[in-house]
């Protein structure tokens, strides 16, 4: 943004930028960890591989982003230190990402809502003033397009499927919708970064996401729940109870055996 | 669940200019899902640039019981192999 002086940019940025990159990284990391729990349990062998592939894409995104956050921070923390040595209040993921797998319907709805969010975020970040972030987003965007194809395919298939599958998809949507208020509600940090041309303006992306969601819900014969106020602020480190359980499992080994290699 | 899904045969083109080759099969509810399953099962290590899926039920196979009648008559016709020609060194990929 040409209307922001370099001095303002430099003063506002470093801490904000670290936190913002962690927000993107943690959302991918937590969602990838959740999907990994499906390995060996998916409804079919082919779906098992499909979910594992998406999990690996997400963890790959998290690795690139965490490494970058560690470099920006300049305190010597690498991707492993950031993934395994932080506690829940330091995680900045969307609250939606940490919601439990529950059944396949919940997993698919959660995935589809976040895939749609990442499509908008990564798409906009490809033109970020932060060129490193733009390059990571360009790579992640290709992966996300496939994730969205996968999750929206299942959303329509099950929503417009049998009476039972329709009921379960609508229930999952109703359960998870309350976490969507956070997706496009910018906080002060994001407003500063979008003014500097680094982060997208969330308010401008919301309409595209919403239109895409409506189109898919229509095909899936599912009803969009009404907007709900949200008390969750995952990106500010205020999480639901589920994140601590997830981190306990994910971090147990590296914390119990510091420096362990395998 | 996958027992209820029909079988699709999967063909992969490993790179542009080469033909699609049969690599295996997947279960899927329809062709769109079959492409996704084939992608997830068979292209995880950059095996290809293009996929075909074909419902296995659409493939007509030769009868193994007829194998002798179909294939053995070719056995003693070695003159069909172009092995009696001297190939110039300059000719590649013949």
Q: Which regions of chain A contain 5 or more consecutive residues with pLDDT less than 50?
A: 1-5
The quaternary organization reads as heterodimer
Please tell me how large the radius of gyration of chain B is.
19 Å
Shape of chain A: globular
Average of the residue pLDDT scores of chain A: 93
* Main sheet: strands, sense, barrel of chain A: none
What does this 3D model show about the protein?
- The complex is a heterodimer of chains A (262) and B (94).
- Chain A is an all-alpha fold and 262 residues long.
- Chain A has a single domain (6-256), classed as Ferritin, core subunit, four-helix bundle (Ferritin).
- Chain A is 66% helix and 0% strand.
- Chain A is built from nine helices and no strands.
- Chain B has a domain at 2-60: Roll (Ubiquitin-like (UB roll)).
- Chain B has two helices and three strands.
- Chain B has helices at 31-42, 67-71, and strands at 7-13, 20-27, 50-55.
- In chain B, a hairpin with a 6-residue loop joins strand 1 (7-13) and strand 2 (20-27).
- The mean pLDDT of chain B is 90.
- The interface between A and B is medium-sized, with 13 and 15 residues.
Question: What are the defining features of this structure?
Answer:
heterodimer; A: 262 residues; Ferritin; 9 helices; disordered N terminus; B: 94 residues; alpha+beta; Ubiquitin-like (UB roll); 3-stranded antiparallel β-sheet; flat
